[in-house]
Amino acid sequence: MGENVSRDLSAIVKAYDVRGTVPDQLDADLARVFGAAFATVTAAHAVTVGHDMRPSSPELARAFAEGAAGRGADVVEIGLCSTDQLYYASGSLDMPGAMFTASHNPARYNGIKLCRAGAAPIGQDTGLADIRALVEQWTSAPAGIPPTDRPAGTLTRRDTLGDYATHLRSLVDLSAIRPLKVVVDAGNGMGGHTVPAVLEGLPLDVVPLYFELDGSFPNHEANPLDPENLRDLQAEVRRTGADIGLAFDGDADRCFVVDETGEAVSPSAITALVAVREIARARAAGEDKPTVIHNLITSRGVPEIVLASGGKPVRTRVGHSFIKAEMARTGAVFGGEHSAHYYFRDFWKADTGMLAALHVLAALGEQPEPLTRLVADYQRYASSGEINSTVDDQTARTAAVRAAYTGRDGVTFDELDGLTVSGPDWWFNLRPSNTEPLLRLNIEAADAAAVAAIREEVLALVRD
After folding, report:
1. Superfamily holding 267-376
2. What's this model's pTM, rounded to 2 decimal places?
3. Other C-beta atoms within 10 Å of 385: how many?
4. CA 92 to mean position of chain CA atoms
5. Is 103 a catalytic residue?
6. How confident is the model at residue 104 (pLDDT cuts 50, 70, 90)?
7. Is 149 exposed, middle or buried (0-12, 13-18, 19+ CB in 10 A)?
8. Residue among 56, 57, 103, 266 flagged as catalytic
9. What's the maximum distance between 2 C-alpha atoms anywhere in the chain?
10. Which residues form the Alpha-D-phosphohexomutase C-terminal domain (predicted)?
11. pLDDT tens, position by position, 38-51
12. pLDDT for 364-377, tens place per residue?
């Protein structure tokens, strides 16, 4: 096994997680070595391990647990869970955690999301590179994993679903909301496991779509970022006359919102809505100018609304490691991304789509207006969504765009993450993919016509 595994690790150890096809790139033997390396690098006396509904997940999670126990860590196995439920376990039990999931990837994939105690992220620069190095060393050594003088740890089972649901509901008061009809599309992912527990007993008429746990994703990909995968939810909201629709991705850490007309609500608008609520709660507790983190792709309406609500906006690069690092540095109360990842200080600075969903349900149910009216104040500008272009030279194409806009009145540039070009009432960001020969374009302007004009001009330069 050693030679092949060592050669393949570069293909499966990503910037923030481990992800590959089963069993050729990731199998139980390799998962066991990852467990041993994880316990060694974190020097943990105890770790927690959970997994999603993919057919390969139970075997991989158990092998990882056995590897960690073999290095002296007591392992708390929480079984089937969403990624944010694993973060809950890591935070509440104060131990490092491992979640076996490939999120929205196709069924043949699986992977591992890792965190330190308190749900602190592990990425390339915060331990993942060290874990990879140990795995490569041990899988290529004839003797395999070396012996340790620590006694073997124990494996125990623990059900955290009820405690997770109770914790989330303690953070948002839903006791006085009006009755709502809610369509929820779990995409055959872990939302089918967590949504019933979290929403049970609330004045909600829940219409379930694809709650059956099925890692083959028989109905559609569990990736709500692709508009194709929202169509069933949108149709069901319209058919049933629901007040709101919610869509979760495969590991249920992201949540997308559909209004009562079946139209998708921008994650930037949800970021602004939740930010206003979290700022108000923090200010009521005596906090002056609570900080809210937003990445540079979110609408400019987000920092405007944060400022108007008495908060302090902080702009970051795209990606959870940057958001979480800034939340730790600033003590931010909340953070949001255009990809529908929402981060909460009260949830160990980790992302949880479920808690964001509870905030939206509370905001909707506390007042009589429909969701379209409620979010209208938070959707100030027109946007393009993310447009991907395959290019032969990312650097040269980006330079051509910059040159074309240089010298224009009122135009400024910044390079926090890719190239952001800003005008008086518009901006766009052109960002290279780290893993593919792509440039990702996001545009925001005063109206759809302005967005279309910028789109045409920039894509002519990028795709010429």
Report:
1. Alpha-D-Glucose-1,6-Bisphosphate, subunit A, domain 3 (3.40.120.10)
2. 0.95
3. 13
4. 20
5. yes
6. confident
7. exposed
8. 103
9. 69
10. 386-460
11. 999 999 999 999 99
12. 999 999 999 999 99
